[in-house]
Amino acid sequence: MALTELLSLITGDKMAKILICDDEPGLRTVIKRYAEFEGHEAFEAANGLEAVLACRNELFDIVIMDVMMPSLDGFSAIREIRKTSEVPVIMLSARGEEYDRIHGFEAGVDDYVVKPFSSKEIMLRVAAILRRSEKKAAEEKLIFKKDGLIADITAHKVSIDGKQVELAPKLYDLLFFLIKNKGLAVTREEILAEVWGHGYCSDDRTLDTHMKLLRRALGPYAGVIVTLRGHGYRFEG
Questions:
Q1: pLDDT by residue (tens digit) across 124-145?
Q2: How far is CA 7 from CA 39, 63, 124, 125, 197, in A?
Q3: What CATH number does the domain containing 153 carry?
């Protein structure tokens, strides 16, 4: 039995195939070492172009992607990957401005980590994404309808007034969580725990940014998400 399989059995966690894309060999090596210690199988790409080609030839469970790289930057690489794959992406960046976060989330990023960071933090975020992926796979078929808004949770589709709307993966997760709790007041902490995973380290800007993007995507139905000042949100279905 391989060491990664043995570690997976001991910890009870799912073993994942992780693609680590960064133009710094030392950083790739450190993340890979931690990933393999956690029982995962890790692969490397030195730039965005290599990452795109790797995702066309292999099925990965998670991609860890740097922003600034030669050949093809992280944002462009994610857009290319999203044409053929919904693999979760954790983006690494040396900058943490809201513009960069929005740019990344709109490109299809699932999580955003600002350098410098600890490898332990990265592995916690990987574990949270894997738990959400397993939960999503086990979901029963559920379709929500309200006037011209239709959300098919099992098929992972959303349409507004007869036109299908493409959302970033994290926005799907956020919308579907709110729908499953429609009519209930959910706190910001509950949303972060369920959508981003327990143990997720974040500030208020992450949720605020995603809510802003989701409401924008819902257009005339943005009002179904009600802000409960000082508490959280409620989805009115």
A1: 999 988 888 777 666 555 789 9
A2: 5, 21, 16, 18, 22
A3: 1.10.10.10
